Give the backbone structure.
Amino acid sequence: MSMNKLDILLISAAGVSFAGFVGTAIYAHVNARRLKCLSNKFGIAIDHIVDETDIQIPQEIIDKAMNEAVKRAAKNQVEVSAIEITSRIKSEMSVHLREKVEACTKNLEDDIKAEYRKQIKNLDLDDIRTEVVAEVREKALKMIKSNMDDIIEKHNDELDATARVYESLKEKFDL
């Protein structure tokens, strides 16, 4: 098996790439250890500075922050209370209105029933019967008249047709 130049170049490139990868990994590991060491030193130094330093905050700033916090808490509590009160009032008004509407509806029903009873008692059935009979009679007469007009018109059309037939026969036979 013979190796040509291309195979040798590929093997060489793979070897160099692997060596570069291993070198990069070692470099990264070494730098990570250095950074960790520095971080620990800085952490210890920062902790030491924080422990040793006494920070003085003026009472004025503390009072101002407290006042702002109290204002925010009071505002939030007022808003929550307002929402709760509004909700409670709406609920109570809804119940109260529903009760009033139901009472008014019952009263209206009773008043309407009483009025209908009164009007029914005052009705004269003979007058109603007379009116209904008159209306039915009038409608029946109109219907009959309309039908009679149609029958008369049809009869006249048939008479005209018959007259034309006789006229035609008369002309044919010269009578």
